[in-house]
Amino acid sequence: MAAVEPARLYDEHIRSLPVEQRLQLLALIAGDLAVEGAPTEHEARHSLAELYGIGQGVWEGVDAQEYVNRLRGEWEERPFGKLDRTIGRE
Predict the structure, then answer these.
(1) pLDDT confidence bin for 86, thresholds 50/70/90
(2) Model pTM?
(3) For residue 84, with 0-12 CB atoms within 10 Å meaning exposed, 13-18 middle and 19 or more buried, which class applies?
(4) Other beta carbons within 10 Å of 75
(5) Residue 34 included in any domain
């Protein structure tokens, strides 16, 4: 079949179809496109090991204990931290 411009194809063959048939055609095309664009089984599977080392530069030069202490200090400044102390939780 020779290539036909989509607008011409629509005007000459599809526009005159009843709504139900046009919807069926639309569903067929959408399904066909979804299958073509879907990743293959090989592409869809990944391993958590692929993420290893991605963020290591973010922590360069950061002392872990100082970081934890700073976070804990922030907890005391938050409203729920003060509320816990007033109701006896520490």
Answers:
(1) low
(2) 0.39
(3) middle
(4) 11
(5) no
Look at residues 13, 33, 31 and name the one whose alpha carbon lies nearest to residue 22: 13
Helix (H, G, I), strand (E, B) or coil at 34: helix
Mean of the per-residue pLDDT values for the chain? 81
> Using CA of residue 25, residue 28, residue 34, residue 40, what is the dihedral sign?
negative
Kindly state whether residue 32 falls inside one of the protein's structural domains: no
42 occurs within a structural domain: no
Residue 51 has pLDDT above 80, yes or no: yes
What range does the domain containing 87 cover?
A: 63-90
Report how far apart, in Å, the C-alpha atoms of 79 and of each of 68, 74, 83, 84, 87 are: 19, 10, 6, 9, 13
Identify the pLDDT of residue 77. 72
The structural domain count of the chain equals 1
Which residues are within 8 A (CB) of 57 and not within 5 positions of it... i.e. 6 or more apart? none
